[in-house]
Amino acid sequence: MRRIHALVSGRVQGVSYRAATASEARRLGVVGWVRNRSDGTVELEAEGPDETISQLIAWCEQGPPAAQVAGVAVDEIAATGADTMFAVVR
After folding, report:
1. Residue 42's domain spans which residues?
2. Number of structural domains found in the chain
3. Which one is catalytic: 3, 36, 37, 90?
4. CB neighbours of 27 closer than 8 A, spacing ≥ 6?
């Protein structure tokens, strides 16, 4: 299992980025969470098989149609196995 922490920058708030990310993560069978940050970025943690996490990262680099992603900074972190679903948090 692989777990990542990512910060997504660009025009990623107010464009359904969180909801679309949660939908894609659930489609892929990834668990974790996504939220907006006060600095205008979107933050997420995701856990799942290596190839599936790679697919989610690739999706995050594009985002939903209205988003304009400038960058995705990804850090590898220890898998926890604690999440049971992918959630949008506030």
Report:
1. 2-88
2. 1
3. 36
4. none
Quickly state the pLDDT bin for 90 (edges 50, 70, 90). confident
pLDDT, average across residues 28-39: 98
Q: Is 18 a catalytic residue?
A: yes
The one catalytic residue in 2, 18, 26, 35 is 18
Distances (CA, A) of 51 to 17, 30, 36, 37, 77: 22, 11, 25, 27, 16
For a pLDDT cut of 90, what percent of the chain falls above it? Answer: 99
Whether 27 is catalytic is no
**Residue labelled with tokens 């025009």:** 11
